[in-house]
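Q: For a teaching session next week I want to show students how multiple molecules come together into a single three-dimensional assembly. I've collected the sequence lines for a complex. Could you give me the predicted structure tokens for the whole thing so I can convert them for display?
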Amino acid sequence: MTELATSPAAADEAPAVEETRGLWVDGWADLRRRPRFWIAAALILVLLLMALAPSLFTSVDPAVGELSRSRQPPGDGAIFGYDLQGRDVYARTIYGAAPSLAVGFLATLGTMVIGSLAGLLAGYSQGWADSLLSRIGEVFAGLPFVLGGIVILTSLNEPGEIVGAQELVFQVVLTIVVLTWPVAMRIMRAAAIETAQQDYVKAARALGAGPFRIVLRHILPNTLAPVLVYGAIQFGVFIGAEATLSFLGIGLRDPVVSWGVMIAEAKDRVQDIPWALFFPAGFLVVTVLAFVMMGDAVRDALDPRGR
Amino acid sequence: MAPLLEVEDLRVEFGRGPETASVLNGVSYHVDEGETLAVLGESGSGKSVTAQTVMGILDLPPGRITGGAVRFRGEELLGADPERRRLLRGESMAMIFQDALSALNPVYTVGFQIAEQFRFRRGLSRRDATARAVEMLDQVRIPNAKQRVKEYPHQFSGGMRQRAMIAMSLALDPELLIADEPTTALDVTVQAQIMDLLDELRRERGMGLVLITHDLGVVAEVADRIAVMYAGRVVEHADAATLYARPGHPYTRGLMDSVPRVDDVAGAPLRPIPGLPPSLAAIPDGCPFHPRCAHAVDRCVTEVPALRELGGDHQAACHFAERFVAEGTDRPTTHEVVSG
Amino acid sequence: MGRYTLRRLLQLIPVFLGTTFLVYWLVWGLREDPFAGKCGQRECSPAFRAALTERYNLDDPLIVQYLKYLGAVLTGDFGQTFSGTEVSTLIADAYPITIKLAIVALVIEAVIGIIAGVVAGLRGRGFADTLVLVSTLFLIALPVFVTGLVLRQVLGVDLGIIRTSVPANPSIGELIVPGFVLASLSMAYVARLTRTSLIENSRADFVRTAVAKGLPRRRVVGVHMLRNSLIPVVTFLGTDIGALMGGAIVTEGVFNIRGIGGLIYRGLQQQDIATVVGVVALLVIVYLVANLVVDLLYAVLDPRIRYD
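A: Of course. Below is the structure for the complete assembly, covering every listed component.
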């Protein structure tokens, strides 16, 4: 009889925890062997440093422009040259990291939190909550990203209105989150449905575990991996999205210094000041690349099917 | 005359370096025309890898053939021209798999997949090939074959899918059929029907049949001879009646004791083989079965037993095979197992 | 199949209503004064205001305005701009070039993406596979406007191979570079999707069966592996058509193409709300219809879906 008495409890605890822990440990062991992961990690570390402590990299004020040195090419004193207003492109590129990364971070966080909660609710409850959330998600997913971004951002501000830096960042983040949470929801929902059908979840339910406990202990640990991988890749994509919106003149703008803002300012003067475009664009691409590479490596490590 | 199929001292490894797994360590068996050889063993014993090597469908890499020979009607197949081997597949030797649902392509109709062979191996027109596919489905007793030929695999029941798989493998009238656990995924009642069908088709066509299984009941019913595999070797080989009455290898005996029998006294305990099959990356020295063997002595740990001739085409790879054969079992004969 | 189509069609209706209402609310409902800045520095004249209020039913509650507008759209009337031009005329002028660009982009991403994916997936680990993985990584990391600006500068200004500004009625040839820019991101996804799906399928049991049947290698790959692997790719391409039709704003801006994206962009900059709502409503329809077609195509390609 002792056999029978202990085994249901084991079904309640062990498999979910063991399975997940195995996944993460194996994933980490695999990750450590991938050069792609280390390159991405090193790049992200440098970028974080740039965003948190720009003064380590430059002592020049990125906002000060002297018209006398307008359009001076890279050389002594300013290795990236000066822009039209005579501002130091290197200093601006360094200071541009913070808003770009901030938008990427906040938008990823928002999308994942909202999308995951909605996805868990939809995937676990099924029924009417699922139908409702799925339809709402489709409504937002029905708007192509750039189009939706333009509509939302132009509606938020009256023409000619002066908006503060923090509010601008908030608006851009809000726009990205509103337009992309359905994707995160779909991923989480699919994973939750799959996990909910596993025998150990059924066993836990049969033993009378409450919905909160089942979601927290059994479903969430097994659905986190695909959402996290999506998040890591989207971090990079969102930085690119911010730059795209800023490029169109509706995202961040002066007084905020971000790579997108710099590119938007420089795009019509490519002929005479190419360096004002080249350096922020280069940093932007490398940053997005670092995050996409990170996401790629993490996905390959956690999902052995693609090997 | 050379046997239909002869496998000799076949050796296959997977992986490289310290993680190398020796999957086959000198497998030998043969099948003659019109006879059924059952290959018996636990999962991981190398039954399926041997079959895939014979068919030439083993993935290389990760697999690596390191030695031995596979001869079909005396013709050496290992190292033969790939095109020659392709032409043998379907035409001379065919294979059916355990899980017919995943072995059939989900996006094509069953008829298309059978007709394909007539079209691309026999050069028949689409229409003629489909007519032949209907005939094949009829032969494996799928009712209403004319309609079902247009259906997709997921619309078939498990037993019907395995019948369709059999029809497909027999389309080009092969002389040798390898059935890799053909009934494992099926319900018990359906298992018997499929086995009967296979046995009947073999007799009608005079085919050689290699029946890979871990199910002693299936073996008892249809096998002429049985090869028992363990850790990538054939450890015992005999005709079915001899093997049941006088197994020469403790592993064979263990397999028999771990299956409930109808004549068992109610409540009598089963005697499973203790332990697990060895990891193929670290096969124990000496007799690979010694860690699980109740009769093991020092010699078993140090010396690999060779396949010993026990008379009457009965061989076993155990130092004490003669003793076990002399002891015999309290088992009834094969026939009694089936009907009892 | 008929019931499946009907069910999917019915599911589109709430999504269409929701999305168009969302846009309508954003552009009309969120603004305190829809005429702010419309008449230069001065306040708009009461007569002008009255006329526009009348034209756009601004005195009604938002939901009533929306329903009236929707009724008009469904009869083919996309409304008028502030200056009185029919929005449908603007759309008719701009849409052909957008469609042309979308088709060029679709062909480029399908052809290059699938070929790259097949080469990488079939050859297994090696130079081709690494090349495809690394180059798709870069394509994913490059924002479209950066690709566009760089190609315009290098090919247009420095080398003089293409014109930096695409003419009003461009030929296919003149749209190749913009089409490539527009397609670049999806091309990378197509290549990766094809590769992954091919690798997964190459290990499938049914491929082993096809080999065991003695079929020629060409047929095993072409009929049994590719057909199954391309199902998700075709689905992706279909979804992308909808996005390409409406998402060309950046590319059209960089290459000065006077298509539908430019129309929306100018409409927003000039605060021409009617244009925006009209075009967005149309694009949402296109997007949803494209998705519906993809769903149906999926059911055709994968017989297992039909009977669910």
